[in-house]
Every structure is written in structure tokens, then in C-alpha cells.
Predict the structure of Adenine nucleotide translocator 1.
Amino acid sequence: MRKFLVILLATLFVLSFAKTLKVALLLNGTLGDKSFFDSAGRGIQMAIKELGIQAKIIEAGYQQERWRPYLEDLSDQDYDIIIVGTWQMQEILEEIAPMYPEKKYFIFDTSVDYSKPGLDNVYSILYKQNEGSFLVGALAALITTSGMPKTNPEPIIGFLGGMDIPVINDFLVGYIEGAKYVNPNIKVLISYVGSFNDPAKGKELSLAMYRQGADIIFNVAGNTGVGLLEAAKEADRWAIGVDSDQALIYEDIDIEIAKRIVTSMMKNVDLSIFRGLKLHLEGKLKYGQAEALGIAEGGVGVADNKYYRELVPEQIRAKIKEIEQKILRGEIKVSTAYGMSTDELNKLRASVRP
């Protein structure tokens, strides 16, 4: 009995000093975009609830001069893991991470350059957004009515991008290829806003695309994309959301907007962050390398919610599932903007120009 009590007390003593994992999520933007950064925030909340971590979310805003000081300050504090995201944080992290080799860092939606020294404490999360975008491109081509009557065989759909950069164009490449897989004659109006935080401009460009004949537009613009969703409501047209399940987010905010979102191309930042933290706690996370998460890994997909099921006929939903399986089996190879030359990208964009 005495031996048992000694072991029990020793165990309790060790557990009482077990260090709770402390995590900081630094956003180079703000919460409230109802897509990308909000998804990252949800991943942290999931980890707090299910993994028992301590965490803080820091909103650094959109002023770039503030991002490096924030990251340096967090690195000087007692956080075990610091998480950042987007291509805009890549170079900053490449400079900061080697200065704090005892810290661990995640970066999502891009990868650091591992040929540079001192980055073996960084885990990079990439997403195969081209795969998920292929699915919603096919969906847009299947449900658009802009090609009716049959005397107009070239239906028009739209794409709103935050900026003309590789990650956004990776969405675009998949979207175009998915649409052309269904209808080789389809046309795609393409607008880049030049900002991820300009909803007014996003709305203006979206309304212009609706006026030019698009009846459905894919939102790949962060907070700017809020303007597209408002435009869909105003023009009584359709939108495809991005990153988060935007219809479910909006149903308690503006039900009329929710009803115009056919589905969302899910870029599961939340699940990827939660997964990374769980693997870290299990001692299984491989730092010093990047990991790309696609359909097979649950990194991307189509939001299957009540709006999708109500708005999209069953046979079309079945077709999207069929296409998804073909991607998983390797029967459909989706191109990527990464490594694509400017000439190749311009040729693809020109092939769907009205």
C-alpha cells in the first residue's frame, strides 16, 4: 500500500508540473473575413477545446510594417509554437525563425525556402486548392444558365481574386480546368481586386461581371470577397464561397446572402492547424519540411450543406462526387499555377476569355 501511494504521489507530482502547450496565432490581417483568417481562428479554438492547449490569437492588421515587430515580440515570449500564414509572412519568418532555434513555428498557405539555413524548426502547410477549385469549376459549369437558350453555346461564369499571385492563380487554374472539363466552350470573366481587404471594390467588380453575363462567381478574395457575396444578393445571382462554409456563417447574419451561396470551396485551414498541433503533441510532426494537403488528406473539398443540397440537383451533386473520385484515383490530373510560366497562365486565361 505504501509503495502504491509513493508511486501515485510521484505521478501526480510529475503531472502537476507538466507544461501546457502554449501557442500563438499571429494573423497578418484581422478576424471577421468569414473565410480564411476566421478558419485559422477556428482551428485554434478547436485545439483549446479538444487538445487542452493554451493559445492566443493576435490580429496584427493589414499594415505590413507591423508584422515583423509582432512576430519578434511573440518569439521573445514563452510560446512553444507560433503560427503565421500567407505568402506575405514567408520572408519575415525566414529571417526570424533561425534567431529562435528553441521555438517551433507553423506557416500555412505557403512554405518557407528550406534551402536557407536555420529553418528546421518550421513546419509549412500547403493546400491543393487547385483540386478543390476543379470541383467548383465543374459545378459552376453544370449549373450556370447563362448559356441558355441553346443558341448561345458559350455560358459565362466569373472569378474574383484578391491579387494576381500564385496561390490565387492556383484556385483559378483548377476552376478553369474544372469548368472546361464539363464544357470546353465555357467562358470565364476574371477580375483581380489587388487587395484582400477592400469589400467595396470587390462588390463593384462583381456587379460588373454579373452585368457582363456571369450568373455565378467564385470568391477567392478574403475579406474583399464579402463584397462579392453582397453583390450576389443585390443582383439576385449566385456565388461560390471560399475557405470556410460561408453559407452557414451568413445564415445568422444575412439569410438572403446565405441563400445565394451555392457552396464553398473548403480550404480547411482550421483542420490543418488542429492536425499539426495534435501531431506535435504526439511527437509525430515533422518540422523542417512542407506538407501539401489535398482532397485525399481532407485539406480541400466542397461544402455539403443544406443550401448545396437544396440548390443543386441530386444528379449534379453525384457528378461532382464522381469527378472527385476521378481526381483521387489519378484519372484526372489537375494543373497547378505553381511552376506554371506566365505565358502558360496567360494562355489558359485567354482560352476562356469571352
About this structure: The domain at 21-127+271-293 is CATH 3.40.50.2300 (Rossmann fold). The longest strand covers residues 261-267. The chain is about 45% helix and 20% strand.
